[in-house]
Amino acid sequence: MINWDAHICLPQHPQADFAPVAQLRSAGVNYVSLNVGADMNPVSQVMSVIAGYRATIASEPERYVLVSTVDDIIQAAADGKMAISFDLEGSMPLLDQPDMVALYAQLGVRQIHFAYNRNNSVAGGCHDTAYGLTQLGHRMVQAVNDAGVLMDCAHTGLRSTLDIMAASSKPVIFSHANAYGLVPHGRNVTDEQILACAGTGGVVCVSGLSWFLGSASPGAADVARHVAYIAELAGVAHVGIGTDICFQQKDLDDTPPGGFDPSHWWPASAGYRADSPPTFTPPSVWRTIAPELRKLGMSVSEIEMVMGRNMMRVAQQVWSGPADQPE
User: Transmembrane ranges (predicted)?
Assistant: First the structure.
């Protein structure tokens, strides 16, 4: 069985320590998508992070492998290695150029969403004025599909997500988003969005972040509750896991340059408070998700779908595009 974590965040710094990745591997995770930047990160920072992460992966070939196909992941698991690829949280690092998608794909970016909480020239964010996919956004969806990259709708506004899912010729995912029907937070996704995602053949991956799970000290039972909700609504074939754990490391400052304003990206009007940061499920949560799902009545085969087979299916469909394999 392949355990697939659709999104985590190390420090946005080329010298980030990969110890958390090793912790996930020890907890049974076979593949993880590492975030390499978002809309608030300038291209110079994103490229520096990609270069640093690639160098770390290359320096420990006995532990890590940068992958671009599902077969690569299966082989990595057989070899006892952690399979890794990258994701972008927002379209601003694309510089309004659809051709940038294929370039990032060649560097190891295998999934991307278009707006990080706020509106931009491509799509609307989930914490901004209602805004649909722009004309440029439609070209970007085509570029993502053509490059064989997973089209992600996390952090994106309702109207834009529905537009993206209607426009995409490939399955669409939410790499880290929970059920609004259980926790009415703007970052969570409505039943309409969940069903639309399933309609593309895609997967909604449940995150382990306290605000979106509705628990101050989130654990496997909280994750399982959201998994069960989505499975009941849309079918067990359309739910996965993207823990969204954000690992901080002292002495590494990854603050975006250029007058970064956290209150813009995480507005108080949406319920964010600077004096009350979120908590996350620990990497060890992967050891206990399956037993919690079993308590809720899921079979062994259904649990395997949630833990990785669903995302493997979607990636197999999408990653068969023309993107060159990373070196």
Answer: none
Q: How would DSSP label each residue in 192-216? A: HHHHHHHHTT-EEEEP-BHHHHT-S
Which residue type is seen at 44?
S
70 with 44: CB under 8 angstroms? no
Q: What is the mean pLDDT of the chain?
A: 96
Low-confidence winner among 24-33, 188-197, 273-282 (lowest mean pLDDT): 273-282
153-177 tens-digit pLDDT? 999 999 999 999 999 999 999 999 9
Separation CA 307–CA 65 (nearest Å) = 20
Looking at residue 246, what DSSP letter applies? B
Q: In degrees to the nearest 10, what's the CA dihedral of 115, 121, 124, 125?
A: 40
DSSP state of 116: S
Nearest to 244 by CA among 4, 9, 25, 1: 9
**Three-state SS letters, 25-79:** HHCCCCEEEEEEEECCCCHHHHHHHHHHHHHHHHHCCCCEEECCCHHHHHHHHHC
Closest of 171, 159, 173, 168 to residue 113, by C-alpha:
173
Q: Where are the domains of the chain?
A: 4-253+275-318
The pTM of the whole model exceeds 0.90: yes
**Per-residue tokens: 1:** 């069985």
CATH number for the domain running over 4-253+275-318: 3.20.20.140
